[in-house]
Design brief:
By secondary structure, the chain is an alpha+beta fold. It has five helices and four strands, in the order αβαβαβαβα. α1 runs antiparallel to α5 and α2 packs parallel to α3. The protein is globular, with a radius of gyration of 13 Å.
Length: 123
């Protein structure tokens, strides 16, 4: 497990996170570790998603700590490439992290489900 990964995420939960991003059409996203760090520090993110395959892993090590401090739910997905794909970034671009700034009505149910699953993993 990498230094920035605070808990192991089963593939079923990762899949739910991907589904939540896909369902959150027209919801604002912030991409990249700098933007995600800013939203976490400001407490404006609704949910933060981190890729497990980030190199160097220290790039994201501070984000879970900020999320815990600010009470922002966060989760992990296995791949930067798939995270970028789900966030509709151009092919070949990777995303180490994404902050979901608003949850649309169509994604609210999936968001609630993901938050519950992650809370159970962390317990």
């Amino acid at each position: 497990m990498n230094v920035h990964v605070k808990f192991e995420t089963p593939s079923e939960v990762s899949d739910k996170i991907y589904e939540m991003i896909t369902a959150n059409t027209n919801g604002r996203l912030k991409r990249g570790s700098n933007e995600v760090t800013k939203t976490a520090e400001r407490g404006t993110a609704q949910f933060i998603i981190l890729a497990e395959d980030v190199n160097p892993p220290e790039l994201l090590a501070h984000i879970p700590l900020i999320c815990e401090e600010k009470g922002i739910p966060y989760g992990y997905v296995p791949s930067q490439e798939f995270l970028a794909q789900e966030a509709n970034l151009p092919k070949g671009v990777q995303a180490a992290s994404i902050a979901v700034m608003e949850i649309t009505k169509g994604a609210q149910e999936k968001f609630n489900e993901v938050v519950e699953l992650i809370a159970a993993l962390k317990a």
